[in-house]
Design goal:
Number of domains: 1
Structural class: mainly alpha
CATH superfamily: Tetracycline Repressor, domain 2
Number of helices: 10
Helix content: 55-70%
Order of helices and strands: HHHHHHHHHH
Length: 206
């Protein structure tokens, strides 16, 4: 049966609080079951939503999981057109502290989630592709632009490897979460920025 334009327009849309509830169900199931055992049926049951509704929004499990991870780590910041247009604080330190995406910090409460997803990234090509395209690439582009602005202000040497410098804070945060099960709260973000990232940037000026 072919849906009319009116019928198509009135199909349930997954957005706002409803999308957040579905994402939370995905995160809970990832921690409980792991990526391999997570299914659309399980998400539909946990979120109390029809499976057909999920398929209208997400093409498959990988896309659904990446959206859930993105919202959990950086709510309202991934897949947004203004991602690279965030305010310039005027200093590299100010910009870096502001990238703590959650109120609690960069990876607050996410050690179990990251631990559940990281192994699957290296086994599932579709998940890796979705994660790279929809999360890593836009966030990396944003981070490098932060360091590029600092370079133009003279806070970083002209020959510095901006990608390498931009990777320090997220790499240390993920390492703490996955290896030690520790959150990178705001105070830890500030400590890493002040004691590791900024000294590394200043070293490029020598």
């Amino acid at each position: 049966m072919v849906l009319s334009a009116t019928a198509s327009a009135t199909r349930p849309r997954v957005e706002g609080e409803r999308a957040t509830e579905i994402h939370q169900a995905v995160v809970d199931l990832l921690v409980e079951l792991g990526y391999d055992k997570l299914t659309f049926d399980a998400v539909a049951t946990r979120a109390r939503v029809g499976k057909a509704t999920l398929y209208r929004k997400w093409s498959g499990k990988a896309a659904l999981v990446v959206d859930a991870i993105a919202e959990t780590i950086c709510p309202d910041r991934v897949d947004r057109s203004d991602l690279l247009d965030r305010p310039d604080s005027g200093t590299l330190r100010g910009d870096l502290v502001s990238v703590a995406c959650q109120d609690g910090g960069l990876t607050s409460g996410l050690s179990e989630l990251l631990g559940a997803v990281m192994p699957a990234l290296h086994r599932d090509a579709e998940l890796m592709s979705e994660f790279t395209t929809r999360f890593l690439e836009p966030m990396t582009a944003y981070a490098v632009e932060v360091f590029s602005r600092a370079q133009r202000r003279g806070e970083i040497g002209p020959d510095a490897d901006l990608h390498q410098l931009a990777s320090i804070l997220p790499a240390m945060s993920v390492h703490r979460a996955v290896v030690f099960g520790k959150d990178t709260d705001l105070s830890t973000v500030v400590s890493i920025v002040d004691k590791v990232v900024l000294p590394a940037c200043r070293a490029t000026l020598v």
